[in-house]
Write a structure and sequence with these properties.
With 425 residues, the chain is an all-alpha fold. It has one domain (67-424): Up-down Bundle (Na+/H+ antiporter like fold). The chain is 80% helix and 0% strand. The chain contains 17 helices and no strands. It has helices at 3-25, 29-50, 52-64, 67-84, 89-94, 96-121, 131-141, 146-155, 160-190, 197-228, 234-255, 259-270, 285-309, 317-344, 355-361, 367-375, 382-424. Helix 1 crosses helix 13, helix 2 runs antiparallel to helix 17 (382-424) and helix 14 (317-344) runs parallel beside helix 17 (382-424). It is globular. The relative contact order is 0.16.
């Protein structure tokens, strides 16, 4: 299929799925889109049994659209920038230490715990995996997906403190998680016998510090441009923000630094929330609406691509069992990755009741984990890693996504009740 035909089909499906979810399913956005994507892939498989041409069309689309390349090097930049625009800077500053600790120490704890558990458990079902590949899986599944998490937050009423923990952590741990994954991947390519700690540390520092530095430079420059542009000049404002994202993405790729972190920092510079009144309208309402539209369209396309990818993913029984095992392991790792850092900070930062439980169950995985798994070069165990990643992501978005609302509601009810008692006293 030609590129225009593929793009037309994706946009059509995105419109249709969004309509069906809003008017028929009426589910949280990420959950509804994931369910529709699964139904689409299963329908293609069933029809393909009688009309193989249908399956071939889906496979052609997958070949036309390199999912890992498109998501990690193109879509992710737009999605993260759009999401960061709505982060409240004042609240982010108040919660900076919990967010920083979760986005760094939490990711590392989850990575190591997941890798160690999978290394010892997988042989029990006949699919042993070298520890370095267990670490790769741990790194790609440890960070929560900002796209899924932020879409979830929009659906529910939660406190501002908890909201900023969710959104801030998911935005920053995504960038850190990708860097950890790339670092472990380079170690696996070179071989453990050639591993040098200082080289790995230097690579990690280059990616993280370079990404943040690039975001500061481009974000400040873009912010200054927007300050001198009248908000009525909508086209110019949109072009400036588009230029920031595109230049930042290309520069990060050329310099081998973290593009995701750069996008988050740039979005924080341009965003309006939590600023002084004199700087609050640096980006006009139409700019924010434009990026909201970009966010919604790309989100819908992302879930359609996830569904199409499942057409070519093979699910052997022992791999499926490994996936079920991984779901439990990842949840426990997330609990430790959240619980340990926050317990260490509990005397210095007020935490609401059930914060650890909510962050654990609400830490959704999504397309980024799948894209990282698919980005691995062909090797003996790639199919296993892709399969268990899909199992974790589908469980996360559907099961956790459908049930987290009740947990949020109970938590908010407890907070409201405590506030009423305090006022009465």
């Amino acid at each position: 299929m030609k590129f225009l035909e593929v793009l037309t089909l994706l946009i059509f499906l995105a419109s249709a799925f969004t309509f069906i979810n809003l008017k028929v399913l009426k589910l949280p956005y990420t959950t509804g889109m994931m369910i529709l994507a699964l139904v689409m892939s299963l329908t293609i498989e069933l029809i393909g049994l009688f009309y193989p041409h249908i399956t071939e069309i889906a496979q052609n689309i997958i070949r036309e659209v390199d999912f890992s390349e498109v998501l990690l090097n193109i879509m992710l930049s737009f999605l993260l920038f759009a999401s960061a625009l709505h982060i409240n800077l004042r609240k982010l500053a108040e919660e900076k230490w919990p967010i920083f600790t979760l986005a760094t120490g939490g990711v590392l704890i989850s990575t190591v715990v997941t890798a160690t558990a999978m290394y010892y458990l997988l042989p029990l079902i006949g699919v042993p995996l070298d520890f370095i590949y267990c670490l790769l899986f741990g790194a790609l599944i440890a960070p929560t997906d900002p796209i899924a998490v932020l879409a979830m937050i929009k659906e529910y009423r939660i406190s501002k403190n908890l909201e900023i923990k969710f959104s801030g952590e998911s935005l920053f741990n995504d960038g850190v998680g990708v860097v950890v994954f790339l670092t472990i991947f380079q170690i696996s390519e070179a071989g453990m016998e050639n591993f040098q700690f200082m080289e790995a540390l230097a690579l990690f520092g280059q990616e993280v510090i370079g990404g943040i530095g690039l975001g500061i430079i481009l974000g400040y420059a873009g912010f200054q441009f927007l300050k001198v542009i009248d908000n009525s000049q909508i086209q110019l404002e949109v072009l400036v923000t588009l230029t920031m994202v595109l230049v930042g993405t290309v520069t990060a790729q050329k310099l081998h630094i973290s593009g995701p972190l750069a996008m988050v920092v740039m979005g924080l510079f341009v965003g309006n929330e939590g600023r002084k009144k004199s700087l609050a309208n640096v980006a006009g309402d139409y700019v924010l609406k434009f990026w909201d539209l970009v966010d919604e369209v790309l989100n819908a396309v992302l879930f359609i691509l996830i569904g199409l990818q499942m057409v070519v993913v093979v699910f052997p029984f022992n791999h499926f069992m490994a996936g079920l095992m991984a779901i439990v392991v990842v949840l426990i790792s997330r609990l430790l990755g959240v619980g340990i850092p926050l317990r260490l900070l509990k005397f210095r930062h007020k935490m609401e009741k059930k914060t650890v439980r909510l962050l654990t169950w609400g830490g959704l995985r999504g397309g980024i984990s799948i894209a990282l798994a698919l980005s691995l070069p062909p090797f003996q165990h790639k199919e296993l890693i892709v399969t268990i990643t899909y199992c974790v992501v589908v469980f996360s978005i559907i099961v956790q996504g459908l049930t987290i609302g009740n947990m949020f509601a109970k938590s908010q009810a407890n907070i409201d009740s405590d506030d009423s008692l305090d006022q009465a006293a």
